[in-house]
Amino acid sequence: MTFPVEIRVPPGKKKERLDLYVTGCVENATRTRVQKAIREGMVLVNGERVRPSYLVTGDDVIRIALPGPPAAEALPEDIPLAIVYEDESLIVVNKPAGMVTHPAHGNRTGTLVNALLHHAGTLSPGADPARPGIVHRLDKDTSGLMVVAKTETAHARLAAQFARRTIVREYQAIVWGRFGNSSGVIEANLGRSASDRKKMAVVAGGKAAATEFTVLEQFSYLALLRLKLRTGRTHQIRVHLAHINHPVFGDPTYGGRRIVWGPGTPGQKSVVQHLLDLIGRQALHARTIGFVHPVTQKQVFFESEIPSDMAAVLDALRPAGNSRSRA
User: Which of 60, 139, 141, 251 is catalytic?
Assistant: First the structure.
């Protein structure tokens, strides 16, 4: 038996039952399935079989051969789409906030893939029947541009560009705080959070990640940024900005829905709450995508205007007498 997943428990970790710890580490796992796997010897701690009640402690090495649930084939659904460009090889689509990219545990229907299958008929099969055509993803509550492959050739050539990091991707985000510099680069390694395995974090042994930022507008306690990815890690922009104490406004996962900068009086706080009510998600939008077309071999670029919920926040800020500067 092979054990493809290895987890090294961080030093100083508070003791926790093995079944609970593994359930939190493995995406879409259930405690019942994890307990069964532990009893069947599919989870080893320091090379040995243990019980589900074993107390995990710092420096333990957990090896897991837990099988994932079979992927369900995605089915077409008649859902409106904002198609920016389409030809025989690919589709560039403007994904709205709130739409999951592809079917997964807890979101089997209503996804971008379901909508695209209805629109296009067929997409590149890829390696996963639940993810046809998907070369890259956006978080559920991040809006903006994605390129989707309709043929296997397009899929392979686009995936190669992502792997070489030659795809141009620029985002806009409303974030907390004031910036001393008009531009900069955030470089910090990213990996799974030791305290919550469903979140990402800056960790010493993580994967290298770099995000460029430029301040487009500066308000009294919020700012509008342009961001460019040098790498493409999970939640990269959101984690990097939270790491430098400028979390994305409205982000419930990485501290963006609490007051981080500025308002201190009840009246000011009510204004902030109004702004948060205008946007029930992280204020992050994938505005630009550029790549070499997999068939024509020409460089192409596409842009998407900032969505209405983010625009509403900016409109509320601009006439309020806040100082601002445009890049």
Answer: 139
